[in-house]
Design goal:
about 40% helix; single chain; about 120 residues; mainly alpha
Length: about 120
């Protein structure tokens, strides 16, 4: 028998971000690349990411929240931070981009440390 709070709760859990976002072609393409990587290649590499969320989860959310251009740069810089000599720990995707982050200045998407 189920309890009242559990009855009818058929929502499936996903490791990827499932919040609301505009479904533009660039976002869907970027999210498709990340999902393809997760399904095909991630199993061969193993669970060795030094950050929470993992780099592929971060990339999926970055594409969904910020689009193909900004999300792509944020994902690229996150993967670079995950390498030897990089950072570790909690590193969530920012909810909104700072005003100093312009599309023509992609290096400004790089963050050296987690926000406080």
């Amino acid at each position: 028998m189920c309890e009242k709070s559990d009855c009818g709760n058929t929502r499936r859990h996903s490791r990827n971000w499932s919040g609301p976002f505009r479904k533009t072609p660039g976002r869907l393409l970027g999210m498709g690349f990340i999902r393809f990587y997760q399904l095909v290649f991630s199993g061969f590499i193993g669970n060795s990411c030094r950050h929470i969320p993992t780099c592929s989860e971060y990339g999926y959310e970055a594409f969904a929240r910020h689009g193909f251009w900004a999300g792509g740069w944020m994902t690229l810089f996150r993967v670079a931070r995950c390498g030897p000599g990089g950072t570790s720990g909690l590193d969530p995707v920012v909810e909104s981009l700072a005003s100093r982050q312009k599309w023509y200045l992609p290096w400004r998407y790089f963050r050296r440390s987690s926000p406080s």
